[in-house]
Structure formats: structure tokens, C-alpha cells
Amino acid sequence: MRINKVVGALLIGLSFSCAGEKTTEVEEVAMETPMESEWIKLFDGQSFTGWHKYGGGEVGKAWKIQDGAIYLDAVNKDGWQTGDGGDIVTDEEFENFHLKYEWKIAQNGNSGVIFFINESPEYEYPWQTGPEMQVLDNAGHPDAKIISHRAGDLYDLIVSAEEPVKPFDEWNQAEIIADNGKLDLVLNGKTIVSTTMWTPEWEALIAGSKFKDMPGFGKFKKGKIALQDHGDLVYYRNIELKKL
């Protein structure tokens, strides 16, 4: 964290005036106070620096960069994911943070941003440990029929309070704010999910979800961030983070 120097007054001693009275000498000294953390670009718009394929290795060739955006060229599918794609994650782990990014999805597309991921050989996919803010074409993808699987939802856990999502092929602005367990999801300027993680209520949410049999899901308080390969064309740009 950067430090901002501010000027403060410090009493440094006593002296005597001509009349013999005690007087106080005051000297201005530099004191240091914390300065607000700066935004970090997680994607520089030109390279995959700071990212790798989940499980290790370079970012798969199906992930490409064009016009300052990362996109998944999902022409060759291998099951529900792309042949040479896979989920990609940040090299760095984050604890308390404010993440901002923009996304747009192709018609009938599905993807997501996953966070608090524990990248370990015992977990095959990021979603086995990290919650997800859903990316979806609500008008076309079958997942939209499940109300907790729609764009902006905390996937399979909490339904968004409203749906300010834009149609496919249009850019959306999203934010994930995690601060000492408090979690807020923001889509196009509206806070649509607000909850507290790692509480009995949080555990109850997990117990009632598809993640109930995944012992590592939603447990980690520090982790990596992923862009999901769900086998569909998706774009991400302006990915930046502030440590809280």
C-alpha cells in the first residue's frame, strides 16, 4: 500500500521566555498515514501476463486478444468446454477486493467470473471452490430457465434483486466487492446481490445448492479469480482490481 505523507504538529520541548515563563516550541514534522489502495489492471489489453490455465500451464490457444479484450474463440468444443481453452485464472490470490470488469456474451452464450478459488490438484475446476457471478444470455441460453442461474446471479445461491443485464453482444459493466465477508455484486451500476459469506446462513445456502457435496466450495477467504470457459463465445475487458 502506498503511504501519503501529511504534516502534523508535534511538541518537541520546552524553553523559557525572557520573562522566565515556560513556552512551548512547536515543530512541523512529517507523519505517515495510509493512502487508499490504487486500482491494479489484471489485464493489460495486450497480453495474458498475470494469467494461466487453471491447473497450470499457459493460457489455452482458444483464448485470444483483440481490440483490448480477451475473448474465447469457442469454435471447437470438447464437451461443454472448448478444445484448447479451459478456465483461466489470475496468478495472484486476493483476499479483500473490489473487482471491476466488462463482459459481453454471444447469442445463447454462457460464462462466468469465479472468485476465491483454491487452485489445488484435488479440485478439477475453479467452481469446485469459488462462487461465481453468472454471465449469460438470459434470452437464449437454457440455463436462464433456472432463476438462480441468470446473468448477475450469485450462481445457484442467490437470485439477483433485479435484472439490469443488456442483450447479447452488448457490453455490461460488472463489479464484485468482497470485504471481510461482506459480498456485493453490481451489474450496470445496480447492486443486485448483497450477502455475508462464511456465516451459518452462508453454509445453509450452500447446503441447499448444487455445491452441497463439494467440501471445498465457498470455504476459502483468499483465492484466485477465473474467467470461465463454458464453450461459448464471450468477451472480457477493462479488468481491474483494488485491494481493500
List keywords for this structure.
2 domains, 1 helix, Jelly Rolls, 244 residues, 8-stranded antiparallel sheet, 5-stranded antiparallel sheet, single chain, 43% strand, mainly beta, disordered N terminus
- Give the N-terminus to C-terminus distance in angstroms: 10 Å
The helix/strand class is: mainly beta
Low-confidence stretches: 1-35
Q: Tell how many strands the DSSP assignment holds.
A: 17
Mean of residue pLDDT values: 89
Count of helix runs: 1
CATH architecture classification of the largest domain: Sandwich
What form results from the Cα inertia axes?
globular
Number of domains: 2
Oligomer: single chain
Report the radius of gyration as a whole number of Å: 23 Å
Task: Say what the CATH topology of the largest domain is.
Answer: Jelly Rolls
What proportion of the residues form beta strands (DSSP E)? 35-45%
Question: How are helices and strands ordered from N to C?
Answer: EEEEEEEEEEEEEEEHEE
For the biggest sheet, the summary is: 8 strands, antiparallel
**Helical residues, percent:** under 10%
CATH class of the largest domain: Mainly Beta
